[in-house]
Amino acid sequence: MSPTSNLYNVSSQLSLEGYDLPSDRAIIAFVFAALNYMIILFCNSFLLFTIIRNKALHHPMHILLVNLPINDLIGATALFPHIMKELLFDTRTISFSTCISQAFFIHVYAVAVVFILTAMAYDRYIAICQPLRYNIIMSNSHLMKIISLVWLSNWVLMIVLFILLLRLPRCRSYLSNTYCDNPSLLQLVCADTTINNIYGLIITAICQVVTVGLILFTYLQILIACFRNKSTDTRSKALQTCGTHFIIFLLFECLGLFTIFSYRIKDISPHLRKFSGVAAMIIPPTLNPIIYGLKTKEIRVNALKLFQRKVYAS
């Protein structure tokens, strides 16, 4: 057997960097993670069920909103079971195929968040700045085109990203991260990753320019329309809705971009990178159903009615 074949004869099991917590703190962290996961599952599932079940909520804004809990469930399920297993058993190992699947769905989740929030910002822009043309512009056919564009473009970009990754030979089995993602998997490769790096930077740049550009434009137009509106109540409602939306977007953007660039900064603390990466996967799915569910009057009222029906029926 040649030296080259020995070089690439690596284990199908990958080793992960652990959280390095004492057993008592690991149990506390496991309980916290399990509770957080259950809250995410319940709140996002209930929000999804409420919108689907109530025909009164079948408007463009709420149909776009349906995509957010679906995506949150994808991201949380890709990460939380793995975190809980690692905290409980301290295994620090994962099969290569499972790692690829986890990384793929984590990246699908991350890109979908900004795409969905951008689509929702566009919807609010039409509703506030062009209210008389809202039903014409946000027709069912146009709405389906927006949703298809959000998901199809996301999946195509990620499939190409991981095809480029899987074509490369692997000669290492240790991931310098607590979960799997594309930058960590690229560190296992002993070959030229220039094409992968260029593609990753290009899609990151394009996604950022398109999403951030559209959101800044729509929010600027919304602010102008709000200050021109003489109705104080209408202005405050619009600013409250858009303000919370923008905070979620900004929070995810900061955490996500910091995580991406942390792999390219050698002197950065690995603990800080772990925290930002996990926080980007935990905070938005926890806050989204609260902000877009409980703070939206139509959803809150219909959710309470649905909950009361279930209680009385039992």
Brief overview:
It is built from eleven helices and three strands; from the N terminus they run αβααβαααβααααα. With 314 residues, it is mainly α.
**Fourth CATH level, the homologous superfamily:** Rhodopsin 7-helix transmembrane proteins
What is the topology, as strand order, of the major beta sheet? Answer: 2-1-3
Termini gap: 68 Å
At CATH level 2, the architecture is Up-down Bundle
Q: Which fold does the CATH topology refer to?
A: Rhopdopsin 7-helix transmembrane proteins
Q: Helicity, in percent?
A: over 70%
Strands, count? 3
Q: Calculate Rg over CA atoms.
A: 22 Å
The CATH class label is Mainly Alpha
Give the helices and strands as they follow along the chain.
HEHHEHHHEHHHHH
The tally of domains stands at: 1
In terms of per-residue confidence, which ranges show pLDDT below 50 for 5 or more consecutive residues?
A: 1-7
Structural class: mainly alpha
Assign an overall shape. globular
Helical run tally = 11
* Average pLDDT figure: 84
Described by strand count, sense and barrel closure, the largest sheet is: 3 strands, mixed
Strand content: under 5%
